[in-house]
From TrEMBL:
The gene is siaT_17. This is TRAP transporter large permease protein. It is found in: Cell inner membrane. One of its GO terms (molecular function) is transmembrane transporter activity. It comes from the Bacteria. Belongs to the TRAP transporter large permease family. It is a multi-pass membrane protein. The chain crosses the membrane at residues 12-42, 71-90, 110-131, 152-179, 191-212, 232-251, 257-274, 295-321, 333-357, 425-445.
Length: 446
């Protein structure tokens, strides 16, 4: 059997298993192992399974071992535990409280504060789902108590939570860097301006929505004094300090990205204990949550590494590149096709699963057209970010629904989310049309 045919069959089986809701790690590992076995067994033209066992086992174990012992992968648990400790210490909550005090006098101000709070949370944690879950507990109940429309109170947090994918540090950028062998530091820089554009776009959505229909966002009755606003701003200093440790530490040449994450974790823990907002029990809970979250990411990443190795054996990527080249597709058309595939998959699959499933084929095609992989990484993460709030699945929507319970059903969240999706699509269009938005900062630092 031809290796390319085996590769196509493997992709088809993979999609069927995912549609059946088989966990992606098991689907990736199982299909990749069987595909590699079939390729080695049919190498001589005759099915000889005894020759395939050792070669298949070598691919499975060597790729898993190499990935787990990757130095770059150590960033993931460090940034995850950083976010968990910052939440337990109330540092991420302080960002939202500060924004709320300053913006609550505006119509829709608390929704804007929720979005800004999500941006601040994202600048520490790097996880969209964690951002939606945490900020949903903090922001949404308060907006509902104030009389905000359920659609705005929930959709603003669900959409704001997606910024954890783009604003550095981002777990998705780390995974992308590992599988494409690109610079994590440059990817972090490349995500800053698109992340800020997304935040501004979401705030504009709230402004327009509340201006057209004032009933969705009542103005807060209480007015904060100048002293209260100053105090609220000062209380957010730990979050600013942690962000500066990561950014200045990395791009000032003081730390590697991994070392910056480690220093930020130590600083966050010290601040939490110094302010008496963090206890040993809180620290233990943060570490336990980190172990669970990081293990799930590692298992998927290890399975994906095996899948990438199996796809490389099939020769499917070069064949696909040749087919696209012979079709003489223009790069904009190819890019639109890639975007359509990512948006379609985003309706059903989780972001890491989509990334590891598509990168083995998408990256060679983009490289064949001579495009910058840092820019393409921003495009991919933005597409995955959109997928987090796209029906019918929308992971952030379901996470938020579980957090708020019966107070806001899923239908109400999706009813408000389309406005924020429009802003997302506009930002995506700007990133595609003007790659400099992503590259200006990353190219400034060599």
């Amino acid at each position: 059997m031809d290796p390319a045919t085996i590769g196509l069959v493997a992709f088809g089986v993979m999609l069927i298993l995912l549609a059946m809701r088989v966990p992606i790690a098991f689907a990736l590992m199982g299909v990749a192992t069987l595909a590699a076995f079939a390729i080695f067994a049919f190498r001589t033209g005759t099915f000889m399974p005894e020759r395939a066992l050792r070669a298949t086992a070598s691919i499975v174990f060597s790729n898993s071992f190499d990935l787990i012992h990757s130095f770059d992968l150590s960033m993931i648990p460090l940034f995850v535990v950083l976010g968990n400790i910052a939440y337990r210490a109330g540092i991420t909550t302080a960002v939202y409280n500060s924004a709320r005090v300053w913006l609550q006098q505006l119509r829709g101000g608390v929704a804007m504060a929720s979005i800004v709070g999500c941006g601040g949370f994202s600048a520490i944690t790097g996880s969209s789902i964690a951002c939606a879950s945490t900020m949903g507990r903090i922001c949404t109940p308060e907006m509902l108590r104030m009389g905000y429309d359920k659609r705005l109170a929930t959709a603003s947090v669900a959409a704001g939570g997606t910024m954890g994918s783009l604003i550095p540090p981002s777990v998705l950028f780390i995974v992308y860097a590992i599988f494409t062998e690109t610079s994590v530091s440059k990817l972090f820089l490349a995500g800053i301006l698109p992340g800020l554009l997304t935040l501004i776009g979401f705030v504009i959505v709230v402004l327009i929505w509340s201006a057209i229909d004032p009933k969705v966002a009542p103005v807060a009755a209480e007015r904060a004094s100048r002293a209260e606003r100053l105090r609220a701003a000062l209380e957010a200093w730990p979050a600013v300090l942690i962000f500066l440790i990561v950014v200045v530490g990395i791009y000032g040449g003081f730390f590697t990205a991994t070392a910056a994450a480690a220093v930020a974790v130590v600083a966050t823990t010290a601040i939490g204990f110094a302010q008496r907002r963090l206890s040993l029990r809180d620290l233990w809970l943060a570490v336990r949550e980190t172990c669970i979250q990081s293990t799930s990411i590692f298992i998927v990443a290890a399975a994906a590494k095996i899948f990438v190795a199996a796809i490389a054996l099939t020769g499917l990527a070069p064949a696909l590149v040749q087919t696209v080249s012979e079709a003489q597709l223009s790069f904009p058309v190819l890019l639109l096709c890639i975007c359509a595939v990512y948006l379609a998959l985003g309706m059903f699959l989780d972001p890491i699963g989509i990334m590891v499933l598509t990168l083995p084929l998408a990256v060679p095609m983009v490289e064949a057209y001579g495009m910058n992989l840092i820019w393409f990484g921003v495009v991919v993460v933005k597409l995955l970010e959109i997928g987090l709030i796209t029906p019918p699945v929308g992971l952030n929507v379901f996470v938020l629904s579980n957090v708020v319970g019966k107070a806001a059903p899923i239908g109400a969240i999706f009813a408000g989310i389309w406005r924020f999706l429009c802003a997302d699509v506009i930002v995506l269009g700007l990133i595609l049309a003007f790659p400099a938005i992503s590259l200006v900062l990353s190219e400034a630092v060599q």
